[in-house]
Input
Amino acid sequence: MSQARHRGGDRWSLRAPRNRPSLLPALPVLVVAAVVLGDLVGGTGTSWLPLLAAGPALAATTNGPRGVLCVGLLAGALAAALGDKSGVPGPEPAAVLSALAAVTLASGLASALRGRRERVLDAVRSVAETAQHALLSPVPATVGPFQVAVRYSAAAAEARIGGDLYALIPTPYGVRLIVGDVRGKGLPAVGTAALVLGVFREAAYDEPDLLAVVDRIERSLARNLGVDDFVTAVVAGYPRTGHLEVVNCGHAPPLLVRASGALMTVEPTHPAPPLGLRTLTGHVPDLQILPFSDGDQLLLYTDGVTEARDRGRAFYPLLEGLARHACDEPARTLDALHEELLAHVGGRLHDDAALLLIRKPTVREVVVPEPSAGGTTGSSSGTTVSEPAVTRPKARSV
Output
């Protein structure tokens, strides 16, 4: 079921269909009319009457039980009239009418069962939508000093829920956010995503150091995941004016768009394993500090975007797409990217896909509060940024 939803800066990207009248309910009647016409054209000695059973059988897929009954009665009345007109011997019309009655009853039962299944599916979709709201809370258009936009598409569009995750929240230590991708699909992936988001939301408020937030998530996953399960993620924070902290745990690198229009990939200087696999490698993540000024933008995404393929098996070029569509309105930028992504894959994604874009408005656009000096992390205070990206030494294990 397709649906479009707007709330602040958050939008589910499934699009609402236009209300167009459907000809499907009338199709069984057209089939019955075609059979009658064939019988009339064929003349005496050519009986098409048994084919009238196709009418109620087809009605079971397009109509309710009442519609099936109406089509069956129409077919039966026409069969009786044509049989009498053609002078067909008595046993043959009786057999045709009996077959029509049996098919109509069976088709009516099938239609009733189909309607029941559709009602159950609607209830499941409603529950999935509620779970989606609880798992991926809608993000407002403005969070702290940032303009924000989010687009999310689940590969199972009917369920509208998947294993990709995102969250962006204001904390005493500045705005913090996470975008991640759980290995696997289905309910186990959803459960892992819920676990990661729950730990992140708690730790983001409690821990002054962003690396400590990541450590909390790592420890929780180590206790709850199987040996082959993991989560790739980028965790970021804005502790003080002009400084953006980024921790990349095996995830696709964010894309940074400068106010000048320059675009760069934020590759991790010391790659770290995905969350849940640290004990296997012994590597701990590093904290990258990026200059982030007025007009700058940061795009985080999941591999469902970059691994989307067209019919020629070519990947979607996200970097080029962002260069084409980046503007001063994050929502409009993601709208254009999402439309282009769907066009690239032919209308349906085969993997969950999430896009989260933050932008620091200029002073002339809007006046917003900056994180106070008290919110600066002790471990990163006094850091001098002289390069586009500065890496802090590895943190000790917690």
User: Anything to note?
Assistant: The two ends are 45 Å apart (CA to CA).
